[in-house]
């Protein structure tokens, strides 16, 4: 083994700073959320909960939170169901054109989201879906499919096919094999997909800016509008709670064995 | 072809029975995803493409107008420049980071990986808001600079702020492909060069760096292409006077209702992205040294 060179120490120091730059800035929302005054500054006075009180007493913020939770939960259910069966189909079917279908399923993460936002807005205006839960859930689900297909496919590729063959050779019908053998085996992949899809929808801004209306706002869109218009530290309180919620979700996902939670098509 | 192979093998072994003795039911499972994609992805984009060729008048007028428009050319140039700066920043920060990941212990590597993936997992709105708070004229950073006697800088509502915010979002996209390639480089090559008398620096520059180029090409191309389409970060950390392409599209459509014109911009953006990714892929095929970077 080579001894640590001074260069290595410098490298470690530089990377430590990069790590700090990646993590710390985001956390500034936490102290700001406890400011007693109407300002975006880190408070030097005694902390106050007034912006949290404001969040939970202001109907606009409460509605936005509820809408976001409903949309993210529905997106997660739809994308997970649709994405999991699609990944299964891609894994099992032996036909021509499968590669094309697989590529198509992943394209929503390649097209610039602003372009897709415009397209969906253009079509949904004609279908009367702008400003509706259906419209937002559909748009979020289609972009969340790749986030489910990837971890589920990875799970499928990794697990032991012999177990299914054993079950089938002992006389289990295909549906039973699927339910009692395959699904438990790929559960970690499915779970990560579900968590990915939920967080994706809960955080999504660009598609949502096009598809929300003054009567139906999501939390990120309300924050986007608020930040450009008024000096309202409630945004910091909302940010802190979002950070807490998504971090908890990811940690719970990890604890429950979601191993594929490494990358996310952004 | 695979279907025929399957058919030929079927009488002998039991394996294909489970794998796909009949493909049709499995294909049915693909249907929900394909319907959703067709309705909410393919059709909207196709309609938008048609709009770019028909609205307000049929023909390629929108595209020729755009290429002649000074405003569009300025914004396109600025979008390319900003993306290039972000890309370069990600290379300068990401290369040493990815390199460090290959030389540390397993536990440290997991930690480094978790840290670089944090931007994937934190809300874009929350992060952008936090940068706004930090970079504002009387924010923490400027207060510190003032206390140190450096003086206050304009860090936000300009390209500086946009670059800082975007580079933080894009760093994982740069680090992961570079790490994937570096991890496979045989470090004994470096030791061999040094034992033949090469200085560590020149061994690195002449052996390690060329071998890591596929990762650099993959990381940089994806960073550049994704950067081209940024909307939220420049909208909140930049100023209207230095708008990027997606902001111009948004304004043309939501405020001026020029659907065809805005859509044409979007397709120029998409075409640029695909061309760049295609060129990098072709270059990777042409030069064996870049071969690993196709992913």
Question: How would you summarize this macromolecular structure in one to three sentences?
Answer:
The complex is a heterodimer of chains A (about 270) and B (about 300). Chain A has twelve helices and no strands.
Q: Can you describe what's shown?
A:
The complex is a heterodimer of chains A (266) and B (295). Chain A has helices spanning 6-27, 29-33, 50-57, 59-92, 98-106, 113-126, 133-158, 161-169, 174-203, 206-211, 219-229, 234-255. Chain A has twelve helices and no strands. Helix content of chain A is 74%, strand content 0%. Chain A has 266 residues and is mostly helical. Chain A is globular. Chain A has one domain (49-156, 172-255): MetI-like (MetI-like fold). Chain B is globular, with a radius of gyration of 25 Å. Chain B folds into two domains: 26-59; 66-294, MetI-like fold, CATH 1.10.3720.10. Chain B is built from 14 helices and no strands. Helices cover 78% and strands 0% of the residues of chain B. By secondary structure, chain B is mainly alpha-helical. Chain B has helices at 2-9, 15-20, 23-54, 61-68, 70-103, 106-121, 124-135, 140-147, 159-182, 188-195, 200-228, 232-237, 245-254, 259-286. The chains are: A mainly alpha (266), B mainly alpha (295). At the A-B interface, helix 1, helix 4, helix 5, helix 6 and helix 7 of A face helix 1, helix 2, helix 3, helix 5 and helix 6 of B.
Strand tally of chain B is: 0
- Examine the coordinates and then state which fold CATH places here, giving the name of the CATH topology of chain A: MetI-like fold
Which structural class is indicated by helix and strand composition of chain B? Answer: mainly alpha
Average pLDDT, all residues of chain B: 86
What structural category arises from helix and sheet content of chain A?
mainly alpha
CATH fold descriptor of the largest domain in chain B: MetI-like fold
């Amino acid at each position: 083994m080579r001894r640590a060179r001074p260069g290595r120490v410098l490298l470690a120091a530089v990377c430590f700073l990069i790590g700090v730059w990646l993590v710390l800035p985001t956390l500034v929302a936490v102290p700001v959320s406890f400011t007693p005054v109407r300002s975006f500054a880190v408070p030097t006075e005694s902390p106050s909960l007034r912006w949290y009180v404001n969040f939970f007493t202001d109907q606009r913020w409460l509605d936005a939170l509820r809408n976001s939770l409903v949309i993210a939960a529905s997106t997660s259910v739809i994308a997970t169901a649709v994405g999991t069966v699609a990944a299964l189909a891609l894994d099992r079917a032996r036909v021509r054109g499968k590669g094309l279908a697989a590529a198509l399923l992943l394209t929503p993460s390649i097209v610039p989201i602003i372009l897709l936002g415009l397209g969906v807005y253009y079509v949904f205006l004609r279908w009367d879906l702008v400003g509706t839960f259906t419209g937002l859930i559909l748009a979020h689900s289609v972009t969340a499919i790749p986030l489910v297909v990837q971890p589920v496919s990875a799970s499928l590729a990794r697990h032991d096919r012999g177990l299914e063959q054993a079950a089938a050779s002992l006389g289990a019908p295909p549906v039973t094999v699927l339910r009692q053998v395959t699904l438990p085996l790929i559960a970690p992949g499915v779970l990560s997909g579900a968590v990915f899809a939920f967080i994706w929808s809960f955080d999504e801004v660009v598609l949502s800016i096009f598809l929300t209306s003054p009567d139906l706002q999501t939390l990120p869109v309300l924050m986007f509008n608020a930040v450009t218009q008024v000096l309202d530290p409630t945004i910091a309180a909302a940010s802190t709670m979002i950070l807490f919620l998504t971090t908890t979700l990811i940690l719970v996902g990890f604890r429950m064995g979601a191993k594929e939670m490494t990358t996310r098509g952004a | 072809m695979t279907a025929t192979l399957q058919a030929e093998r079927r009488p002998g072994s039991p394996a294909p029975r489970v794998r796909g003795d009949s493909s049709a039911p499995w294909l049915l499972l693909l249907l929900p995803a394909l319907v959703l994609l067709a309705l909410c992805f393919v059709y909207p984009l196709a309609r938008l493409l048609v709009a770019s060729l028909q609205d307000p008048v049929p023909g390629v007028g929108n595209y020729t107008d755009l290429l002649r428009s000074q405003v569009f050319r300025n914004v396109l140039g600025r979008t390319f420049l900003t993306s290039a700066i972000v890309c370069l920043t990600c290379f300068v920060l990401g290369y040493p980071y990815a390199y460090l990941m290959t030389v540390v212990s397993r536990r440290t590597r997991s930690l480094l990986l978790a840290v670089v993936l944090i931007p994937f997992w934190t809300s874009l709105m929350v992060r952008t808001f936090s940068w706004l708070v930090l970079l504002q004229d009387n924010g923490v950073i400027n207060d510190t600079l003032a206390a140190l006697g450096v003086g206050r800088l304009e860090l936000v509502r300009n390209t500086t702020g946009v670059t800082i915010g975007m580079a933080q979002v894009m760093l994982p996209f740069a680090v992961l492909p570079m790490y994937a390639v570096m991890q496979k480089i045989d470090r004994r090559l470096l030791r061999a060069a040094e034992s033949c008398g090469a200085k560590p620096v020149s061994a690195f520059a002449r052996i390690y760096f060329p071998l890591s180029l596929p990762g650099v090409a993959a990381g940089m191309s994806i960073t550049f292409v994704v950067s081209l389409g940024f909307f939220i970060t420049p909208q909140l950390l930049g100023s209207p006077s230095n708008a990027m392409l997606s902001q111009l599209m948004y304004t043309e459509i939501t405020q001026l209702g020029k659907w065809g014109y805005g859509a044409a911009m979007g397709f120029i953006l998409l075409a640029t992205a695909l061309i760049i990714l295609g060129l990098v892929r072709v270059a990777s095929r042409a030069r064996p040294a870049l071969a690993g970077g196709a992913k």
